[in-house]
Write a structure and sequence with these properties.
14 strands; about 270 residues; 7-stranded mixed sheet; alpha/beta
Length: about 270
């Protein structure tokens, strides 16, 4: 059985757990270690079970604790070369990664990492580099796409294969346009290297979902420019317009920004 747990999803910090009965990995470590330790205790998870870390990109809300976690628990960190370079440059990462804990991935190349078959793929974002991950384990698969300015053909191909999908629904476009952000920040969010809107997320899912997609989780919601119920309702409405009923044909959840969501058993 593959198990999924989100420790936090949003600009305050991102961190996700995937676990088999004998192995576990984190995707991003952008939450504080103290909070991560408490959440693991609350869920009966031993940090010694976590043997690997995957990093999507080098923005602080995804990496601020990655060096400390790797150092304290002697866990290797996997990322594409550009992301590792960005981690080393980022002043928010006060504990830098030790060279012996650094593992280089290549986008589009599948590697076996413990119990997990991992394929990183390129995702457009204004970071040093950014990838999503398609992960196979325990007879099922899991795909995560976060901090994406647009949906590329490569990303679509992984959505089409996914049984369990975490995908960004960052903002409502009207809320961004009418909100208090300065123009340069609005332009950044709405650009092709910014973030996916609720509607763009929904369209990407409905255009590419397979008959075997079981579960969708909406991630990285903006606190200022979105709301969990608005994101859910927008995606539900688009799905319904194509004859797909959330809760019947596919499960739909919104990941909480600052507290854990789950755990979920994935089949």
């Amino acid at each position: 059985m593959l198990r999924f747990l989100s420790f936090g999803s949003g600009s305050s910090g991102n961190c996700y757990l995937l676990a088999t009965p004998n192995d576990a990995l984190l995707i991003d470590v952008g939450v504080g270690l103290r909070g991560l330790k408490k959440a693991c205790r609350d869920y009966g998870i031993s940090l010694s079970q976590i043997h690997h870390v995957l990093v999507t990109h080098d923005h602080a809300d995804h990496i601020k604790s990655v060096g400390s976690f790797s150092h304290d628990y002697h866990v290797p960190v996997y990322a594409i070369r550009e992301v590792h370079q960005g981690i080393n440059r980022n002043y928010c990462v006060t504990q830098k990664l030790a060279p012996e804990m650094t593992r280089i991935l290549d986008a589009g190349t599948t590697v076996q990492i413990g119990d997990f078959l991992v394929t990183p793929f390129t995702v457009p974002h204004d970071s040093s580099g950014n990838v999503g991950y398609f992960i196979e384990a325990e007879g099922t698969n899991f795909c995560i796409i976060t901090d994406a300015g647009m949906v590329t053909d490569e990303m679509k191909s992984y959505i089409q294969r996914a049984r369990h999908l975490v995908i960004e629904a960052n903002h409502d476009t009207e809320m961004v346009m009418s909100g208090p952000y300065p123009k340069f920040l609005k332009d950044r969010i709405l650009s092709s290297t910014g973030h996916l809107s609720n509607r763009d997320c929904a369209q990407a899912v409905v255009d590419n979902m397979s008959d075997f997609l079981q579960h969708i989780w909406l991630c990285h919601l903006s606190e200022e420019n979105n709301h969990p119920e608005l994101a859910r309702k927008t995606v539900e409405t688009v799905l319904r317009s194509y004859g797909v009923i959330a809760g019947t044909d596919v499960q739909l959840e919104v990941l909480k920004r600052t507290t854990p969501t789950g755990p979920f058993d994935l089949t």
